[in-house]
Amino acid sequence: MLIITAPGQGAQTPGFLAPWLEVPGVAERLGAASELAGLDLIRFGTTATADEIKDTAVAQPLLVAAALAAAGALASVGAGQAGGGPNDIRADAAAGHSVGELAAGVLAGVLSADDAVRLVSVRGTAMAAASAVEPTGMTAVLGGDEDAVLAAVARHGLTPANVNGAGQIVAAGTLADLEAFAADPPAGARLRPLQVAGAFHTRHMAPAVAALRDAAAGVTVTDPVITLLSDADGAAVTTGKEWLERIVAQVAAPVRWDLCMKTMADLGVTALIELPPAGTLTGLARRALSGVVQLAIKTPDQLDAARDLIEEHLSEPDGHGHLPEWRLIVAPTSGTFRTPAGRLDSAATGAMVALTAELGTVVARGGQHLVAAPWPAEIIEWLVEDGDPVSEGQPLVRIQPAGGPGGWAPPRGGGGGRAPPPHRRGGAGGGAPPGQQGRRVTSAVSVASFTPFPPAPGARIVSLGGYQPGNVVTNDDLAARVDTSDEWIRSRVGIVSRRYAGPDETVADMAVVAGGKALAGSGLAPADIDLVIVATCSAEASIPNTSAVVAHRLGVVAPGAYDLNAACAGFCYALANASHAIRAGTARHVLVIGSEKMTAWIDPDDRSTCIIFADGAGAAVIGPVADGEPPGIGPVAWGSAGDLASRIAIPNRRSYMYQEGQAVFRWATTTLHPIAAQACERAGVDVSDLTAFVPHQANLRIIEAIARRLGVPRERLADDIVHAGNTSSASIPLALSRMAERGELKAGSPALLLGFGAGMCYAAQVVTVP
Amino acid sequence: MTEQEILAGLGEIIEEIAGVPADEVTPGKSFVDDLDIDSLSMVEIAVAAQDKFGVEIPDDQLKDLTTVQDVVNFVAKNAGGSA
Question: Is B59's Cβ below 8 Å from some Cβ in A?
Answer without folding.
Answer: yes
